[in-house]
Amino acid sequence: MEEKWLRREADWKKSERIEWEKARLQQKQMLTNKYEKELQELSKHLQDRNAKMEKSFQQEKEVFMKQHEEDLEKIAELQKCREQLEAGIREKEVKLEAAMTGLQDAQNELQREKTKNLLLERSIKQRIAAVEEKHQITAASLHEENVSLRHKLVEKNEEVFSRRVQGRI
Question: What is the pLDDT of residue 53?
Fold first, then answer.
């Protein structure tokens, strides 16, 4: 009889242990699924943010590129104008010595236009550099935020796990 009770007790302990293991595995699976879902949501959120920033960057880049193309066209027009002025000045130089004053004025005008063009090119380069720097800062900020969020998630998971472990003890 005693042997029968010992077997029943052993069977009872074994079934308790199996049920506890099943419950633990279910809980682990539930937490893992929850963690993966949160991780996917965070990943999707970050991808959406990156896509928006990329789109914004592309739009700004297109605007600057269009402006740069327009500036290049203006430079080409001014270059043509300069060539025409120089040709006219050379012809007048041969004919009249008095045209020297006109030539000097035209050269000064051309220099001012060159200076304007150089300043315009520098301005465009500065704008592009500023946009690139802004996007680098934003990317670094997002990276830091991602690291911080991962750290918080790990801390939270450890806290939940330690509570459950303490609850079982």
Answer: 93
Residue 138 in contact with residue 53, Cβ under 8 Å? yes
Enclosing H/E stretch for 61? helix 2-95
**3-state secondary structure string, 84-141?**
HHHHHHHHHHHHCCCCHHHHHHHHHHHHHHHHHHHHHHHHHHHHHHHHHHHHHHHHHH
Q: How far apart are CA 20 and CA 24, in angstroms?
A: 6
As a whole number of angstroms, the distance between CA 39 and CA 54 comes to 22
Is residue 111 a contact partner of residue 86, using CB atoms and an 8 Å limit? no
Report how far Cα 117 is from the mean position of its chain's Cα atoms: 31
Q: What is the rounded end-to-end Cα distance, in angstroms, of the chain? A: 34
Q: Phi first, then psi: what are they for 98, rounded to 5°?
A: -70, -20
Q: What is the pLDDT of residues 138-157, one digit of tens each?
A: 999 999 999 999 999 999 99
Of the candidates 112, 111, 139, 132, the residue with the CA atom closest to the CA atom of residue 60: 132
